[in-house]
Amino acid sequence: MSVRHLLATAAAALLGILGLATPAAAHVLVQPVGAYTLTAGRLWSAVAALLGLAGVVIGGLALARSAGRIGTGNGRRGAIVALAAGLVGVVIGGLVVAAAEGGPGTGYGIVGGYVALVVGPIAMVLGGLALARSRHTA
């Protein structure tokens, strides 16, 4: 048996296997995702939403601190952290929404991405207000 014949037989067998496997793979891709299954899209959207939420909390505390209501610091560091967390949450949430190929419940994490797109700018606004207020008092 020549090497050419062997390679041609191997290629034909591989194409035959892939030809038979393609409908099966398409059937697996169409299967719905369970409601509690953690997919990559859901994970990234949860990370983005939690970053945005953490930015809102830190930004609110920094704003209260810069107003002199809590603690003795001016809240500058917290304001910068809130700005960064909000920005990262918006970027990741936007990527999740842009990459999603389906609606809610498909496992792409589109709901969490939209939550991050709403909560992230709020964190950035709170951080910006706290930063501006800390500059005025310093």
- Can you tell me the overall shape? elongated
Q: How many DSSP helices?
A: 4
| Average pLDDT over all residues | 79
Radius of gyration: 25 Å
Query: What share of the residues lie within helices?
Result: over 70%
Domains, number: 2
| Major pleated sheet | none
Task: Give the structure's gist in a few sentences.
The chain is mostly helical.
Structure description:
It is a single chain. This protein is mostly helical. It has two domains: 1-31; 34-137. It is built from four helices and no strands. The chain has helices spanning 3-30, 40-66, 76-99, 110-137. Helix 2 (40-66) runs antiparallel to helix 3 and helix 2 (40-66) runs parallel beside helix 4 (110-137). It is elongated. The N and C termini lie far apart (86 Å). It holds the Pfam family DUF6223.
